[in-house]
Structure formats: C-alpha cells, structure tokens
Specification:
Chain B: Pfam families: MetW (PF07021). The complex is a heterodimer of chains A (486) and B (205). Chain A has 486 residues and is of the alpha/beta class. Chain A contains 15 helices and twelve strands. Chain B has a seven-stranded mixed beta sheet, with helices on both faces. The chains are: A alpha/beta (486), B alpha/beta (205).
C-alpha cells in the first residue's frame, strides 16, 4: 500500500501503519514543536455567546518569505489536529495526519511554502475547548473555596458541556485573527479536506481579499439530511451513555467510552465503502467458525471495535458532539439569502370572471391531480435551482482561484456535492478547477497518497496566474449580463 | 500552435467568455487567455491533460462530454469551442445543439473523413483509413461518429444551424506550396483533412 492515512482515523491495522510511517519519514518536515497563541480579547461567536479569551495551538512548517506571500493555511477535519506533518520527537513513529501531502518536495512543498496548521477551538488537542479551563468556573470557584472538589482541581474547572457551540464561520474568524498575529495579510492558499474544505470555502466567502487560492477536497456546500442523520446517531450514542453525566464526566470521574466508541464506529462506516470493506474483511471470521454469541466474530466487527477504542482514548466526547453540530450547521449561503422570486401559481381573477371561474373549477380539479405529479418532479428541479442560486449569491464576491477535488467512491460527501460547488462557481464566472479522482477508499481517500490527486494539488499551488484567469470585477458582471439574455 | 487552433482564435472575440470542450492540456485556452484576455473553462476527461491544464493556471473541469452540458445555463458563454472531439462523442447532434444553447456561437473542428487519403485507403486498399488526422486502427479508435464536410453541413441544415464561417485546412499545410493551398480551398472535401466551422443558432444581425 502506497498510502498512509490520518493518524486520528486509523484505517490500517497497527503493524501496517507503523511500516508505512517508517517509509514516509523520507521527505518529512522532521521534528516539529507546536506553539500556543493566546488571544486575550473576548470572542463573540455565531451562537451569540462570548468566550472571554482563547488559545490556539499551531504548527508551522517551512519558512515565511520576506514579503509574507508564501503562506498556506491547512484546515483540519472532524478528528484532526494542528499536527498535520512531521513528528513530535526523534522516536515518534506516528507522523502528522497529512504527512503524505505536506513536506519537502511533496504536493504542499515546505521548501517553497510556509505551512500553518491550527487546531480549532472546541477541539481537544490544545486549543481552547471543552477540556480546557473555563475562566468563569475558576472565578466562581474562588467564591466557594470551601466547596469540596469531586475530582482533580483542573478537571473540575474545565468547560465541559458549557463550552459554546462553535461553527465553521467562528473557526474561520479565529483563523483570520491568527493570520493577523502572524502578519499574513493574504494567504497563498487555504487548503482543507472534508470539514477542512468547508473552512477553506467559508474563508473565500468571508474574507475574499485574504486568499489567492482555495483548495476544497472531499467536501460539500452543506450537509444533506442523510449526513445529519448519521451525525445524530453518533450524538445519541454519546448522549445516552450513562457515563456521559450531562457532559460533566470529567468532574464525575467517569468517561462515556462506550458512547464514543459507538459514535466513531458509525462515523467510520460512512468514511469507507462497501467494496473496501469487502476487500479488507469480507465475511472472514476471527475464529473460523460461528460462536452463536455476541462477542466479536466477524473480522469487520473486530476492526470497528478496535478503531472505536483507539479513538475513544484520544478524543473528547463533548468535542465530538460539538464538532458534529458544527458540520450540521455549515451553510455558507446563510448570510446571502438569494432573491428567490416565488411566483404565485394562482393568477388574480377579476370579480366579473368569478362565475366563469367556478365552472372552470371542476375541470381544474381533475387537472390538478395530474399536475401534482408533475409539480413533484418540478419541485426537485426548483430546489436544485434554489440551492444553486443561493450558492451563486454566496460566491459572487469571492476573489480566489479554486481547486475542488472529489473521490468517486466517497458517499459521505459524494462527487455530486462537490459539483454543486463547481457549478455555482462557474455560474458566477469564477476561476475553478475540478477533478473527480478514482479511488477505492471512500471519503477517507483524501488522506491517501494518490499520485493524480497530489499532482493536481501541487500543480494548482505552483501554477502561474494568467492575466485572463485573474478574478476581475468586470468578468462577473460580464457574465451576469450574458446570463440575463436567457 | 495547431492550424485549427490558429483559425479558431481568429473567430473568438477578445475578452469574451469561452467554453472549450475537450480542451486537452489547455493549449488553446492558455493562448486565448494570454493573448486575447479571454476567460472561461476547459472540459476534459484525460487525467494527465487535466493536471497539465491546472498547472498552467487555467480553469479545467473534469467532465465527460457525453454527459452533456446541462450544468451550464442558456447563453452562459460567448463562444463554445470544440476541437476534434465531435466525432468522438456518443450523440454529436445532441451535443451540437446543446453547445448552441449555452453559447451564442460555436467553433468546431473535426477530421474530414472524405479526405483523399481516406478515400484511397478504403477505396483502393479496402482498409479503414489511418492518417495524420485519424491516427487510430478501427478497433481502438475513439472516433465513433466520423463525418465529412458535406455530412456536417447537412446536419446543420436539418437543425437550422447557420454557418457563419468555414475553413478547410490540411494538417501538414505549412509545408504546402501556394498552389496546393489554393487547390485545397477549391476542393476541400477531397483535399483538406481538417474542417473548421463557426456556427450559430441565433439570427445573424
């Protein structure tokens, strides 16, 4: 296998993962040390709640050039972190989650670019989130110093379930604040896969003049009802675990391990494909025969439990809950309500025509039944058109060039969802590239070293700007003008 | 640059919005963008060519032309270009009409099946033609709907497609004498191996 996946999604059996990580140390950024940036100012979130201050934990690779024009921001996915590439110590065997993408001479070439990866707030890897200290709780505890602590002092003071629900837009805002701190006015590119792709897309909408290129991989313009349904199953697994304790498990000295394992098992199924599972496990039995019980029997069960257990050891349940909500809420069109002209289907009838109209009514009723069927079909098309119009409105002011990548076997965020983004960008005359990469790994494909995919990313990031392809105000207008002829 | 590309360029207005169907490595699109300030998209299915186009800084979309142009709204482009791909799609007639729905004008080039070399191949040798413009064997050719200049013009007439300009060239024309060039203009269906048409469905002003 020429690929090595995300260290937090862990698709490979342990021995295989170790083997490939050794192979990949060639061309690595080497040992990296994360850095924490403290932001003392209050941050008001989309949910209207305010964090009094916050920290961002960040890793950087490569060197920022003198005019600060070679910076690339990496946005992580649901289970990801700031540790995208390299190793944390000389004997660290596990490279960052996108080490096959980022490094010297790799698709995102650290010889050429200064790469920044930030852990988002609400996560559990060092940026402010449910597992970090809640300043409100510290001050309230000071008033009740006599109150006995049920657990470790620090654990009693963490945000836990009190951490506000954050959105993709909130994350982008904090990333923009980090950009200011780093002195980066314009990113050479912002790159992300899955939920990371959503952040990249949101960046292009919210801060159109602060990025030149936007790479949106295995992503979607918004979650479908089915996507939300899977997330809800994951949340309910956690919420219904008796050890969840309304999210105050750290204070209670418990941990909703079973809930988190179950949530990850469900999620993991959606990252893979039927074919990939068939190839990897088939119906293989662990002991070679039916045991007629509920212990692990099929290899696929063993694999899923192993993945769930590994995940539950390294992830926080409250973080998982709020991350899935951030996914569900994602909608870059929210601030750009498209002017949808809903024409009345009932024409106004003058009074004198009302008698004639009543005669017509009987005739109409029979016709209506037929028309309803037609309407149902039309409605699907109308919805599609409305979605497109909303996206067009959101993208109207973007100024960057896009690369959109999907994978043929991804059914979590299928190629059609990426194409919605592409269609809306083309309809607004924006520069966009699109590739649909044939890969067997489902949604997880974005973490694999697929030459064609890596080649496209590399080519896009290093391509010259052709004058004609530069975003120009006039072009969007031109295009709208031509569109108006239809 | 290829002869048909050079000619196609003449018929594309500066700063217009162009869709290039089967854009290959984006050679024509890159030329149009750099020299004529044209904007637009290239559609291609060959993975390597797509990556080449992306690395040129163009806007390349992976799409099979057989899936049609439904994703594009009516009149969303000034010109749609299709160089030597018409003969390789499943329904050239449907695609041609779709092209003239999304753009005001279409510039189309295709190999002429009635070229004398092809006639010679089939008529005298009894073999399917293999030539510079048609470099494939019958069993591996992507060219499933080959036609002649006359065939194409009949299709245009049938669908009320107006031919604004047409040009016949020989791929190896650069080496030809002026006499040979003028002969090609006299009897294109026999002597030219590549056709270039500029067509529209809208009424000329």
């Amino acid at each position: 296998m020429n690929a090595r996946p995300d260290n937090t999604s862990d698709q490979l059996p342990k021995d295989e993962a170790d083997l490939t990580s050794q192979v990949n140390t060639v061309g690595s950024v080497g040992v990296v040390t994360p850095e924490i940036f403290h932001f003392p100012e209050p941050l008001t979130l989309e949910c209207n709640r305010t964090l009094p201050s916050f920290d961002l934990i960040v890793e950087t690779y490569g060197t920022l050039n003198h005019d600060k024009s070679n910076a690339i921001l990496i946005c992580h996915a649901l289970s990801g972190s700031h540790h995208a590439a390299g190793f944390h110590s000389a004997d660290d065997k596990k490279a960052g989650w996108w080490d096959n993408m980022i490094g010297p001479n790799k698709a995102i070439d650290t010889n050429q670019f200064y790469v920044v990866c930030v852990n988002n707030i609400g996560s559990c890897f060092g940026s402010t989130g449910p597992t970090t200290i809640n300043p409100d709780r510290v001050s309230s505890d000071e008033h009740h110093l006599d109150k006995p602590h049920t657990s470790d002092h620090n654990e009693a003071q963490v945000y836990g379930p009190d951490f506000p629900l954050v959105t993709i837009k909130d994350w982008v805002k904090t990333q923009a604040m980090l950009s200011d701190r780093l002195g980066i006015d314009i990113w050479h590119a912002i790159v992300g896969g899955s939920m990371g792709g959503m952040q990249a897309l949101q960046w292009s909408v919210d801060y159109p003049d602060r990025l030149k290129r936007c790479v949106v991989i295995a992503s979607t313009p918004k979650l479908s009802a089915q996507n939300i349904a899977f997330n809800e199953v994951a949340r309910q697994s956690i919420l219904s675990d008796p050890d969840f304790k309304d999210g105050r498990y750290l204070q209670a000295g418990t941990y909703p391990r079973r809930g988190l394992i179950l949530a990850r098992m469900v999620g993991h199924i959606t990252y893979l494909t039927d074919d990939a599972m068939k190839a990897k496990f088939g119906r293989d039995l662990k002991s070679g025969k039916f045991m007629y019980g509920y212990d692990v029997e099929f290899q696929v069960e063993s694999y899923l439990r192993y993945q769930g257990e590994r995940f539950s050891e390294n992830f926080d349940a409250n973080t998982y809950l709020l991350m899935t909500k951030a996914l569900d809420y994602f909608d870059p069109t929210r601030d750009y309500p498209a002017a949808v002209a809903t024409e009345s289907t009932e024409p106004l009838v003058p009074l004198e025509d009302s008698i004639g109209a009543s005669v017509e009514a009987t005739k109409k009723a029979t016709q209506n039944a037929l028309e309803e069927t037609v309407t149902a079909i039309d409605e699907g098309e109308n919805n599609r058109q409305q979605e497109l119009n909303a996206l067009k409105a959101a993208f109207a002011h973007t100024q960057c060039q896009y690369l959109v990548v999907s994978f043929t076997t991804d059914w979590r965020f299928a190629p059609e969802r990426s194409q919605e983004i592409v269609d809306a960008l083309m309809a607004t005359g924006k520069p966009v590239n699109y590739i649909n990469v044939d890969a067997p790994h489902g949604h997880d494909s974005f973490l694999f070293d697929i030459p064609r995919y890596m080649g496209a990313v590399k080519g896009f990031l290093t391509a010259p700007f052709i004058t004609g392809s530069l975003p120009k105000n006039s072009r969007g207008n031109n295009h709208q003008k031509t569109g108006a002829r239809s | 640059m290829r002869m048909d590309h050079q000619l196609a360029e003449r018929w594309i207005a500066p700063h217009s919005h162009v869709l290039d169907l089967g854009c290959g490595n984006g050679e024509l699109l890159a030329h149009l963008q750099q020299n004529r300030g044209v904007t637009g998209y290239g559609l291609e299915i060959d993975e390597e060519k797509i990556n080449d186009g992306i690395a040129k800084g163009l806007s390349i979309i992976e799409q099979d032309l057989n899936d049609g142009l439904a994703r594009f709204a009516d009149n969303s482009f000034d010109t749609v270009v299709m160089a030597r791909a018409l003969q390789a799609v499943k329904s050239p007639d449907v695609l041609l009409l779709d092209m003239l729905r999304v753009a005001r004008e279409a510039v189309i080039t295709f190999p002429n099946f009635a070229h004398w070399q092809n006639r010679l191949h089939l008529g005298l040798k009894g073999l399917m033609p293999v030539s510079e413009a048609l470099p494939y064997e019958w069993y591996n050719t992507p060219n499933i709907h080959l036609c002649t200049f006359k065939d194409f013009e009949q299709l245009c007439a049938k669908h009320d497609i107006h031919i604004i300009n047409r040009f016949a060239v020989s791929d190896s024309e650069k080496g030809h004498t002026t006499l040979m060039k003028s002969l090609i203009r006299q009897a294109p269906n026999l002597l030219a191996d590549v056709a270039i048409y500029r067509v529209t469905k809208q009424q000329p002003k």
